[in-house]
What we know:
By secondary structure, this protein is mainly alpha-helical. It has 7 helices and 4 strands; from the N terminus they run ααααββααββα. α1 packs across α3.
Amino acid sequence: MVRSSRPPSPESVALADEIRRLREPKFSVREIARRTGISKSHVHNISIGKRGISATRAVEASERLSRERPAFAIIDGQMRAIDPASRRDRQKIGRYMRAIKDAKRAGDYRDIRQRFRRTVIRTSEGEFRFETDPAVLLELDDAGILDIDEVFHYEPAARAA
């Protein structure tokens, strides 16, 4: 007996296109799976066109993707919204922004250079390095750009056991 197949729903087609789009600029299958809540193998199979996804799961995954917020970091002397490629890069940004806030409070930005000089952030737009020049950071502070009202916590919260 031949199974009849229905055409895929618009939601599932849109999610499959979004997964393929995310796979192009260096996002890993693991990161896409984390962001959508779909298993790694299913994400891989969707990205190569081997499997589809139901409309309800596609809607849930799309909602999870839409809730992802960009992270803010100081790159090339300006505050930029970037989309980190992994959870580890998001943690690096959180540590950097916390160190900037502490250095601003102390008024001394010299430790930033030593601590983050070699740190590279992978994003959907490429790789970036944080601004670590104390003179530039002092200028940004004088201009009021480093007045961070909210604390940026990009590190994952500890899971309750």
